[in-house]
Every structure is written in structure tokens, then in C-alpha cells.
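User: Let's play a game. I give you a shape written as C-alpha cells, and you guess the letters that built it. Ready? Here's round one.
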């Protein structure tokens, strides 16, 4: 395996490979995104903190139902057809 390094601009989520790459060859692609573009692509990093639930809510949910039990009794299963 050998590596070719080239720069490209994505156009409609497509990249043009250099002509020296033959058709049908298996490729491993690593994308390195420019830091300036990375900040534009993700608005969360523009100074808006990511929203997280309060840690006080942890362990406050109580399950009252059996998730493995059917929602309807077996007698009513024929009504679903």
C-alpha cells in the first residue's frame, strides 16, 4: 500500500480523485478538515455551550411497567389482524 496526498474541495459531497488513481482499486480515505471550516460547520463551537440535562435528574426515573410484557392481553391479539 502506498499513499497519495492531495488537496481537494468538496462539491455536493463529492471529491475528485487524481487521474493517477485507477478505476476499481480499493482505497482507504482519511479526511483532514481545515480548522476554520470545522468551526463554520458546527455552530455549537461558536460559543454556545452544548445543552445537558441537570445532574440532579440522574436516578429520578422510576419504571412502573414490565417492558417485556405484551401491551395487550393474549385474548385481544386476534383483534389486531
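Assistant: Ready! My guess for every position:
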Amino acid at each position: 500500500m502506498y499513499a497519495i496526498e492531495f488537496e481537494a474541495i468538496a462539491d455536493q459531497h463529492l471529491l475528485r480523485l487524481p487521474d493517477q488513481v485507477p478505476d476499481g482499486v480499493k482505497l482507504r480515505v482519511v479526511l483532514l478538515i481545515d480548522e476554520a471550516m470545522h468551526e463554520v460547520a458546527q455552530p455549537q463551537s461558536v460559543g454556545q455551550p452544548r445543552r445537558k440535562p441537570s445532574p440532579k435528574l440522574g436516578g429520578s426515573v422510576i419504571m412502573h411497567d414490565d417492558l417485556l410484557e405484551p401491551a395487550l392481553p393474549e385474548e385481544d391479539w386476534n383483534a389486531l389482524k
